[in-house]
Amino acid sequence: MIIYIGADHRGFALKKMLIEALQSDGHEVIDGGAAALDPADDYPDFAGMVAEKVAAGGATSAAPDIRGIVICGSGFGVDIVANKFNGVRSALAMSPEHIRIGRHDDDVNVLSLPADFMAPETALATARAFISTSFERDTARYVRRIQKITQVEGNNKK
């Protein structure tokens, strides 16, 4: 699995910790920035890069499993940006249990985290749950719902 991760200045410290921990777990983690702590940076730059990589990776079934993690202070901004990309199903999760449902039922492929509202230990446990939980592909209603989401995306292209 390849995991892209990006954060603005408010999520910078959490991003660094997650990269280290997830690499120690044996995952390939690609840092999508910010490369340095800069209070003037903008979360759309980093969330957009991560979402673009996840969207491109999902374009072919031959691609390896690619997921993304995006972080800002509230988690809302990066979640909004990530969900602008076709094929991305980003969810703001506040706990491991929360993201397990999103992965299992909705095939969430980008995890949005709120650095200002989550302890680092909870963020790490949530990221690990995001990575380890599979989508329930054998349940027809879950697959049907993902297909409907894809149809909505296609209908809203400009």
Number of E-state strands: 5
**Global mean pLDDT:** 93
Structural class: alpha/beta
Specify the CATH class: Alpha Beta
CA-based shape: globular
Largest sheet: 5 strands, parallel
**What is the CATH fold-level name?**
Ribose 5-phosphate Isomerase B, Chain: A
What does this structure look like?
With 158 residues, this protein is α/β, with parallel strands linked by helices. It has a single domain, classed as Sugar-phosphate isomerase, RpiB/LacA/LacB (Ribose 5-phosphate Isomerase B, Chain: A), CATH 3.40.1400.10. The chain is built from 6 helices and 5 strands; from the N terminus they run βαβαβαβαβαα. A 5-stranded parallel β-sheet has the order 2-1-3-5-4, with helices on both faces.
SSE order and pairing:
Elements: E1 2-7, H1 12-24, E2 28-31, H2 43-57, E3 66-72, H3 76-82, E4 90-92, H4 96-106, E5 110-114, H5 120-132, H6 140-155
Parallel strand pairs: 1-2, 1-3, 3-5, 4-5
Helix pairs in contact: 1-5, 2-3, 4-5
Q: What distinguishing features does this structure have?
A:
single chain, 158 residues, alpha/beta, Ribose 5-phosphate Isomerase B, Chain: A, 5-stranded parallel β-sheet, 6 helices, 5 strands, 47% helix, globular
